[in-house]
Amino acid sequence: MIQVLRQLKTFTEFLAEYPEDGKRYELIDGEVREVRPRGDHEEIASLITRKLDREIERLNLPWFIPNTCCVKPASDLDGYVPDVIVLDRTQLEVEPLWKTASTIVRGASARLVVEVVSTNWQDDYAKKLEDYEALGIGEYWIVDYRALGGWRHIGRPKQPTVTVYSLVDGEYRGQMVRANEPIVSGMFPKLELLAAEVLVVVG
């Protein structure tokens, strides 16, 4: 039997060879994966972006939400493109890859990351959660509007859930919210947003 070994890419190779076809890609365990979200997935990410943008403007914070941003965790075989990421402009001067590749390597540069769950839900609930935590990103939301996650993540019976993870003493602590419960954010303490607003897709 002949075993064919896959050629894994490093993050440096991923950036250097990133396809110029207008599509979005991530690097997971050395494999380049195309990110192809559904239409309702995009609507949810857009709604969250609008809500957070209004809060940033209202509070006159030095933060912004880029169209795309890559997050490089400690592993050289991974690179994530979050659905929504809030960046702190004051931290970007010390980001070595920001100006050339729209990439951050320091958790302090991101105030909040949001992942809208797709069929690869295990990445959001396990791999990315651990990596965002290790980087020290202060807040991480998982928006599971199709209730795809396992029972240990969203409970029984499975139902659409937003889980807000806040960094406390270097570890994430999660709070699940559903239906008409408010999304409580440490980064945006006066945010008025119900779970139902992001979990129910109209159309």
Q: What is shown here, in short?
A:
With 203 residues, the chain is an alpha+beta fold. It contains 6 helices and 10 strands; from the N terminus they run H-E-E-H-E-E-E-H-E-E-H-E-H-E-E-H.
Describe the structure.
The protein has 203 residues and is an alpha+beta fold. The protein has a single domain, classed as tt1808, chain A (Alpha-Beta Complex). Helix content is 27%, strand content 24%. The strands form 3 sheets. It has a 6-stranded mixed β-sheet. A two-stranded antiparallel sheet has the order 1-2. It is globular, with a radius of gyration of 17 Å. The N terminus is likely disordered.
Keywords:
single chain, tt1808, chain A, 203 residues, alpha+beta, two-stranded antiparallel ribbon, disordered N terminus, 27% helix, 6 helices
Oligomeric state of the chains in view: single chain
Q: Which value, in Å, is the CA radius of gyration?
A: 17 Å
Runs with pLDDT <50, length 5+?
1-5
Output the helix-strand order.
HEEHEEEHEEHEHEEH
CATH topology, by name, is: tt1808, chain A
Query: What CATH architecture do you see?
Result: Alpha-Beta Complex
DSSP helix fraction: 25-40%
